[in-house]
Structure formats: C-alpha cells, structure tokens
Amino acid sequence: MNPNPATRRRRVRIAAIGAAVMIATLAVATSVVAATRHTHSAKAARTATVTAITFRAHEVIKPKLYDIAKPAGPTIGDEMIEKEILYANGKRIGYDLLHFTAAAVTRTGPDVVLQGVLVLKGGTTNLLGETTFQKIRVGVAGGTGTYQGVSGQLTVLRTLKNGDDIDVLRLVQPASTR
User: Fold this and answer.
1) Is the pLDDT assigned to residue 35 strictly greater than 60?
2) pTM of the model
C-alpha cells in the first residue's frame, strides 16, 4: 500500500527531524566526552609537584655508636645518632637528626635501618630507609607543615674532604595538599 503524498512528506519531515535530533545529541555527547577528557588531562598534569633541594650537611654531632647489643663490639641492634646543620647557597636552611640501628654487621661494614627528620623552615620531613653507606638513598615518608603528605627521596651525592655531605632532597607534593 502506497501512502498518499501528504503522508509521505510528513514521514520524511519526521525522519529528518529525528535525524537532526540524533546528530545534535551525538555532537553534544562528543563535546562532553572531549571536555571531560581535557579536564582529566589537565587534572593529571596537576597531580603533583616535584621540588629538589640540594644542600650541604655539616656534622655537629659526629656519629656516635651506642654499643647496646651483646656481645660487646659491633653487633646487630647497636645504635648510632647524628646531627647535621643544613646549608643551601651559603645559608642555613635547617638541621637533621638521624638515628641508625644495625640490622647486620659484616667485615665490609654495617647494614643499618635509618630513621630521621629534616627540620626546615616550613616544617619537617620524615626519613626512613636502609643503607650500607656504600650508596645512601632513603625515602621521605610525610612530614609536618608545608611538607604534610609529601613523599620522595634523600640521596647523598658525595662526601667532601672535611666530612660534609652534599645531598639532594627530592619531594613530591600531591596536588590535593597544595
């Protein structure tokens, strides 16, 4: 059965309007997806900031060994403390307090667990890690003040002839804490 011309025109108009609505809906949906993807990309780019501070650490309390574990002499459980004044660009930026506990002692030296804190102008950063002193690299696990929520790493780059260390502190600050 062939519909009359008026009915046919009405069906064509309805189909054209339906197609136009579908195209407009598709265009809006594509725009929303693109905008959302752009927003997520922008947020991903702002997820964290990384700050690196290079400084010189000057010992004011030389590492002092506490021979607390038996037998006498270097053994597992012995402890050591140290305090250093920190300088960057010739200016004092803070100090550190470090505590080491021997986890192993061999002919080549100790393997220690380190707990420490860097006290800086904006707050403190907490240090945790393990080292044999061949290469010193420990983690940053949070802090206070400006450094609340940070993570990162402290690396001793080299030791100078006078015993001072040149260190770099790399801090990752999540965007949500800025």
Assistant:
1) no
2) 0.70
